[in-house]
Q: What sequence folds into this?
């Protein structure tokens, strides 16, 4: 069993805390992505799992065993580095077989394993080349091949796609997902790109400032963020957050965004939000795709309003329109044909069944 | 990285790194003792009167330290002559070296003309021809010049100004080629567009940007000139023409009587200029050494 | 001398202008390298050829005697001793310098970065002191009557050593001083090379299961291969042709047991007045230097391609 457990994991560099207490349970075969901005502690956590950093406090368990004092080579892990870390003076074959050669695995076994990994990654014809003769994508595949060949308990990925151009990144994402389907090994993957996190992970761990903000399946994090940070970090373009006031009105609650604009809270949420009515620092959150152009039929919960469009960004598939509410810039996604020009007034519809209410003083989603 | 010899099956990184650190410090101290013992001993001896040098007391300690050796040297006209000769030679050689090396390096690094690559290689090759091969034919050549043109070259310190550049120019050119080559070509193109000629490019762009390399090359040229022993030994015989290394060697060792206190003081004083340059400009000094190989 | 870019003239005129520019550029370049060429031509290349000519004259430099100086040397026992001594000194000294330089570079590299400068500064001092002067210091340290080392030995009950008087000890001393002087050079070179190996390669190897020795063997040494071979070959040349240390320490004695090509050539040519023979002796260095130079060039150009 190759589950990974982190218990109250803490890391300090001299006096600076990098990781402030992480608890995480990763079951066997799960693909977990640690995502967050630079400096949030995700890479430090990964390196502690690998054994490349010492643990200040807390425990790292791999396969049920506490491995804090175990050097990396005994933890039975494999790592794919951001800069590939391929041995430049060895061929692809030698790079991939290095770990096995050190363990004195017999040559036929090595050949078998390398060929199997090369086939999964489609690098069979590159085996005799040296790293400097390979493209970025090919090098990344060799780095993964090196990890697969070892047949470890856990794969660790440290921002492996950051050095690739945008198109290649999309391709490689799919490759990594395919590899995980074939070789079902527990994987811990670190990235700052939330798109990678959402597309690759079984579960996403959003980290900020050394702590875990939220853990959950990608869709759960998208539709039910627990904190303001998660709400604004996940999803692109980011969720619109507008300061608002929650007012009682005619048997229900209304969200007042500006002098001109107020929106009704859906009935099913009234009970949940009532206690927070009148609180000073409230934020109204709504994703851009839930602000659309007006259509002939209105679903319950969809509230029409008008806004003057400041900026129009045609994206091909859709058009982003930006307008101001009480000074804050808000983004909506509309059909390209329906979009007005810059400066025009447009009729939009907000789907309030998807709204979020956030208490800015605590950062928690209510 | 470097684990100690202690047997250990598993250990956290911190423990391994700490033991590697302890062993590293241990060996570093040993090697520092090995490398610094001779100079320190030279210093100890230089503080001894000749009586104490000859006595049977602990050679590693000075019981009655005295500065008489240093005083004698500083006021000795012979020693002063050596110092001045060496200083003049070294400074002039540095200037000559820079005047020859910098334009040549610029031309070889930047202005790709026919044969520039082979020439650069050839420059490096000549550096590998040692002075121990050249001093005999040079001796003959200088004697011939003496007879034919009546220019006194043998036994005059200024002959060193002529031959020392052979020791310094090839390597300095090599260093400078490396530094010049590492300046991005876009700077050239920007300068050309701005209307600069090649000479202006050299003086206004390349030299300022490659200044660390120039300093390193200057230091190299100075220390090599200051320290050379064979050429002065072969070509200067009277004391007033000698440079520092040969002067100390030839005159302070008078027959059977070795004035060790003075000799050691003379050596240390003589080593002072390179040591001072090294102390204040250590990074340039080292850059000069490594530039030759790593920028090769 | 401003290289003005011609501004959109007719095509033919433009071509002529550029050609003139090209010619001018290469003449300027040539003029800039001319002093270098004159210096090397007259003071290095010409003397080398002249040395070959001199070696084929008789002692009074009047008659041409072909190769008889060389065949004469072959019959002298001292000559073969000098060959053997020069080779042994060069090879063993370079070997020790390389090993010491390599190991100490690792030790310095292990120390936290801020402290490295101090250690590096102290360890390079033997190289900074002019060899003529530091060798005099060693000469005093190894003095037959007053050696400070012997003083310590005697106090420890070990018999004192005739550092410069006994043939084998004299050879050892020459190698010792050579290693003392030259190891810091290797240290500096290897330290710079060590720093250029990316740390992540070691981490990847650590995860692959490599011990410290395997890391050195499979990562450090291969990545440093070029710098190692360049420094070793370079040092072989310089050590082989070394003059200062032997001359000051032993003057070639006792009984010619520490003579190397350089010192013996000096003795015969300058002290003995037999220029032709001295030239012949020093020319024997040439084949070995040429071979080493060939390997250096090959490695340097190979490095240039790999970069």
A:
């Amino acid at each position: 069993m190759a589950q990974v457990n982190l218990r109250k994991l803490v890391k300090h560099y001299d006096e600076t805390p990098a990781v402030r207490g992480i608890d995480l349970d990763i079951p066997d075969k799960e693909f977990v992505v640690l995502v967050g901005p630079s400096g949030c502690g995700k890479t430090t956590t990964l390196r502690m799992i690998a054994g490349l950093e010492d643990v200040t406090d807390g425990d790292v368990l791999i396969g049920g065993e506490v491995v804090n004092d175990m050097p990396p080579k005994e933890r039975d892990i494999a790592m794919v580095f951001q800069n590939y870390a391929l041995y430049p003076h060895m061929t692809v074959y030698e790079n991939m077989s290095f770990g096995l050669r050190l363990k004195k695995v017999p040559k036929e076994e090595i050949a078998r394993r390398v060929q199997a990994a090369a086939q999964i990654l489609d690098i069979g014809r590159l085996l005799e080349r040296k790293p400097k003769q390979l493209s970025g994508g090919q090098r990344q595949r060799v780095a993964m091949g090196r990890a697969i060949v070892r047949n470890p308990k856990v794969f660790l990925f440290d921002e492996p796609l950051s050095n690739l151009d945008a198109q290649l990144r999309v391709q490689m994402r799919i490759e990594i997902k395919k590899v995980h389907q074939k070789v079902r090994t527990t994987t811990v993957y670190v990235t700052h790109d939330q798109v990678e996190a959402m597309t690759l992970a079984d579960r996403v761990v959003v980290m900020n400032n050394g702590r875990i903000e939220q853990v959950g399946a990608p869709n759960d994090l998208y539709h039910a963020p627990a904190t303001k940070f998660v709400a604004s970090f996940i999803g692109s373009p980011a969720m619109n957050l507008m300061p608002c006031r929650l007012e009682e009105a005619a048997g229900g609650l209304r969200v007042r965004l500006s002098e001109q604009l107020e929106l009704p809270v859906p009935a099913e949420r009234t009970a949940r939000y009532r206690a927070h009515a009148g609180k000073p620092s409230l934020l109204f959150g709504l994703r851009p795709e839930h602000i659309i152009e007006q259509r002939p039929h209105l679903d319950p919960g969809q509230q029409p309003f008008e806004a003057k469009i400041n900026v129009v960004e045609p994206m091909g598939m859709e058009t982003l329109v930006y307008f101001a509410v009480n000074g804050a810039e808000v983004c909506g996604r509309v059909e390209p044909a329906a979009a007005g020009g810059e400066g025009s007034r447009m009729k939009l519809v907000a789907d309030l069944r998807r709204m979020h209410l956030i208490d800015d003083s605590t950062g928690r989603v209510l | 990285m470097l684990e100690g010899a202690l047997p250990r099956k598993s250990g956290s990184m911190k423990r391994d790194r700490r033991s590697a650190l302890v062993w590293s410090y241990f060996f570093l101290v040993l090697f520092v003792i090995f490398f610094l013992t001779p100079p320190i001993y030279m210093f100890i001896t230089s503080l001894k009167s000749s009586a104490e040098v000859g006595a049977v007391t602990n050679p590693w300690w000075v019981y009655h330290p005295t500065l008489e050796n240093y005083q004698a040297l500083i006021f000795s006209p012979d020693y002063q002559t050596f110092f001045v000769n060496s200083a003049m030679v070294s400074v002039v050689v540095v200037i000559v070296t820079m005047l020859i090396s910098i334009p040549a390096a610029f031309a070889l690094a930047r202005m790709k003309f026919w044969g520039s690559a082979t020439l650069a290689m050839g420059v490096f090759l000549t550096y590998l021809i040692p002075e121990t091969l050249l001093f005999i034919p040079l001796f003959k050549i200088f004697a011939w010049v003496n007879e034919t043109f009546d220019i006194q070259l043998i036994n005059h310190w200024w002959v060193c100004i002529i031959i020392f550049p052979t020791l310094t120019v090839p390597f300095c050119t090599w260093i400078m080629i490396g530094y010049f080559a590492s300046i991005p070509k876009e700077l050239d193109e920007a300068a050309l567009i701005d209307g600069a000629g090649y000479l202006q490019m050299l003086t206004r762009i390349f030299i300022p940007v490659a200044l660390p390399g120039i300093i390193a090359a200057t230091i190299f040229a100075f220390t090599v000139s200051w320290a050379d022993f064979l050429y002065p030994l072969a070509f200067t015989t009277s004391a007033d023409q000698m440079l520092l290394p040969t002067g100390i060697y030839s005159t302070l060792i008078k027959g059977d009587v070795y004035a060790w206190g003075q000799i050691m003081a003379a050596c240390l004083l003589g080593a002072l200029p390179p040591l001072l340059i090294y102390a204040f400009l250590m990074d340039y000094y080292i850059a000069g050494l490594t530039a030759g190989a790593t920028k090769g | 001398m401003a290289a003005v870019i011609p501004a959109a003239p007719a095509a033919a005129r433009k071509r002529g202008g550029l050609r003139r520019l090209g010619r001018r550029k290469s003449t300027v370049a040539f003029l800039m390298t001319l002093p270098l060429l004159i210096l090397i031509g007259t003071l290095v290349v010409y003397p080398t050829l002249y040395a070959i000519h001199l070696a084929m004259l008789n002692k009074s430099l009047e008659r041409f005697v072909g190769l008889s100086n060389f065949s004469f040397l072959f019959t002298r026992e001292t000559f073969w001793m000098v060959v053997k001594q020069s080779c042994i000194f060069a090879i063993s000294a370079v070997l020790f310098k390389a090993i010491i330089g390599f190991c100490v570079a690792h030790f310095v590299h292990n120390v936290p970065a801020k402290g490295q400068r101090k250690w590096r500064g102290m360890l390079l001092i033997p190289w900074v002191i002019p060899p003529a002067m530091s060798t005099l210091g060693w000469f005093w340290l190894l003095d037959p009557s007053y050696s400070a080392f012997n003083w310590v030995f005697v106090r420890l009950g070990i018999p004192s050593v005739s550092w410069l008087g006994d043939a084998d000890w004299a050879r050892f001393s020459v190698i010792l001083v050579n290693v003392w002087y030259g190891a810091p050079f290797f240290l500096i070179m290897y330290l710079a090379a060590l720093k250029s190996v990316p740390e992540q390669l070691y981490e990847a190897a650590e995860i692959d299961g490599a011990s410290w020795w395997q890391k050195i063997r499979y990562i450090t040494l291969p990545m440093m291969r070029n710098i190692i071979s360049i420094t070793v070959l370079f040092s072989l040349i310089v050590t082989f042709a070394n003059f200062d240390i032997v001359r000051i320490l032993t003057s070639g004695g006792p009984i010619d047991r520490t003579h190397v090509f350089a010192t013996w050539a000096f003795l015969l040519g300058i002290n003995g007045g037999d220029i032709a023979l001295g030239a012949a002796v020093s020319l024997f260095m040439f084949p070995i230097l040429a071979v080493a130079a060939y390997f250096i060039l090959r490695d340097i150009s190979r490095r240039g391609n790999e970069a």
